[in-house]
Amino acid sequence: MRDLLRHPTGLAGAVLLALIAVMTILGPLIAPYDPQQFHPLSRLQGPSAAYWLGTDQFGRDIFSRILNGARSTILFGLGATMAGVAAGGAIGLIAGAIGGAVDSLIMRLLDGLLAVPDLLFTLLIVTVLGGGSGHAMLAVAIAFMPGLARIARSTVLSVRTREFVLAAQARGESPAYVIACEIMPNTIAPIIVEATIRVSFAIMLGATLGFLGLGAQPPSTEWGLMIAEARQYMFRNPICVAAPGVAIALAALGFNLLGDALRDLTDPRGRR
Amino acid sequence: MSAAYLLRRLAAILIVLLIVSLTVFSITQILPGNAAVMILGEYATPAQLQALELKLGLDQPWYVQYWRWFSGMLSGDWGVSMRLSQPVAALIGEAFWRSAALALASLATVTLIAIPLGILAALKRGTIVDLVIGLFAYIGTAVPEFVTATLLLVFLAGPDRGFLPAGGFAPLSEGVGAALSHVVLPAATLSLILTAHIARQVRSEMSDVLSSDYIRAARLKGLSERSVVLRHALRNAMAPAVAVISLDIGYLLGGILVVEEVFAWPGLGRLIIYALQNRDLPVIQAATLVLAFAYALSNLVSDIVIAWLDPRVRYA
Fold first, then answer.
1. What is the b/e burial string over B135-151, where b = at least 16 CB atoms within 10 angstroms of the residue's CB?
2. What residues make up the domain containing B30?
3. In 3D, which of B101, B52, B98 has the Cα closest to residue B268?
4. Cβ atoms within 10 A of the Cβ of A219, count?
């Protein structure tokens, strides 16, 4: 942890994420206005002392909406990534640990799925499940699964022939013990690094789905949806679309910086 | 690179297509409401529905339906769009080239900007130039396409400062100027995220190479800095850069969906989103397969380019 804060990239990421965390946890409490409250007399205003980031087409306070939207945007990214890591990690672990025909079958399947771009894959799944942020989250998790399974598998393969694994096998430990207690703990670090970076992709994908009308639904304050709703008015009041856009970018940037710093610190060859 | 290797890679692409087609087919099978309902509308009588289901073969088991569809795809019979009542192959063929034009314009921009930026950052490592390029690279990879697209529209295509069209497509027959002005904003949007990512990779590869022994040797030999960088270092840093570019084509193809939708660019991406919104199954199935094929093929092409750039790479 101390190493992380001494690392310039890590420090920048940690600061950004601390800010985002405050918004996520305290956002609705510190927001100056009710995010859904209309102020019909002050529609599409620019920034002012009363409305720090101006107001949207219904006169809703943009700053309050952003503070409230942090929760749906960030939890979406974290939830989708964690589900993807759990499913993909399990598949990769099994494929790598068992090896042989099972492994090649699983890998061929994953290769096929990886040939469909994440966004298209997500859109296909959301079309089947129907829109809404829960379904969108599940779709992103499924789309992430093949990539994460591949990474988990390759780390398992690099660990599987190391001395401590061979020693455990020689001691006569059961395969389940070897996988759970010897192999798995040593694959956690690369997966955490990858997962941290993926959270930023998940946030961007979630916002994109919200923007396309397939993720969070009105009156949610999810940031992608905010941009979609304000698009008609963007020429009259650019901050309607600029503010949520910057918020999405900062959140994605925070996870990206942190993930990169973690990779530098955990990878012995890391230098960059 | 042997002929056997190429054949094996092509066979692998076929397997990928098989898996993608099975996945897409099963996804479309789960969608509520079958094709007959979609064509006749919800007020059709059960007898009419049954007759059409028989005609379309919807009463057959799924593997018969799948095989009929997949073999049709291979032989060029891609079916008819349910919503647009046009042959899917014609629809996709037209849209594909517009998307390809957009993708190539973006890739060219990315290559021309990202590689020099990465080299510059590596040469000026640790200076303010490196820092600025690094910051740009970080920020660039954190902005989703729809945000970039929206912001570019607001600031460059607004009604009062609009010197660029806000969307749409102009074929070359309407003049080079019109065609180019329509491609600028969507291509710029697609380029930003890729430029950022690739510049970062090139910088990292280039700094690796620049600190290697053979570069020191080249310098000690008294070669000019220009020759050291361009002839010795760049060539060795290029192969990994090409690998990254080819992986990024996946992002590019995903980004095209959003960018075409925002800028009303009538390409494959917009067609797919239209088809998904309207549950136009034949179009969804065929277009997804085409995208996956394009991606798999571009990976193969990049592997060939890598082998050509780096003689140590031998595919057997």
1. ebbbbbbbbbbbbbbbb
2. 3-75
3. B98
4. 12
Task: Answer whether residue B82 is part of any domain.
Answer: no
A264: CB partners within 8 A, 6+ apart:
A7, A9, A10, A270, A271, A272
What whole-number percentage of chain A has pLDDT above 90?
A: 10
The contacts of residue B52 (CB under 8 Å, 6+ apart) are: B36, B39, B40, B44, B58
The residue from B21, B51, B75 where one domain ends is: B75
User: Residue A95: which CATH number?
Assistant: 1.10.3720.10
A128–B31 C-beta distance less than 8 A? yes
Say how far apart CA B166 and CA B290 lie, in whole Å.
28
How far away is chain A from the Cα of B217, in angstroms, using its nearest Cα? 23
pTM, two decimal places: 0.85
Token pair 């399947």 is found at: A109
The rounded distance, in Å, linking the Cα atoms of A153 and A194 is 13
Q: How many domains does chain B have?
A: 2
Instruction: Summarize pLDDT for A149-179 with one digit per residue, the tens.
Output: 988 888 888 888 888 888 888 888 888 888 8
Interface residues of A toward B, Cβ cutoff 8 Å, are 108-109, 111-120, 123-125, 127-128, 200, 204-205, 207-208, 211-212, 224, 227, 231, 234-235, 238, 241-242, 245, 248-250, 252-253, 256-257, 272
Last residue of a domain, one of B50, B75, B100: B75
Residue of A nearest to B276 (CA): A127
Q: Is the minimum CB–CB distance between B300 and chain A shorter than 8 Å?
A: no
Contact A123, B276 (CB under 8 A): yes
Task: Encode pLDDT of B124-154 as tens digits.
Answer: 888 888 888 888 888 888 888 888 888 888 8
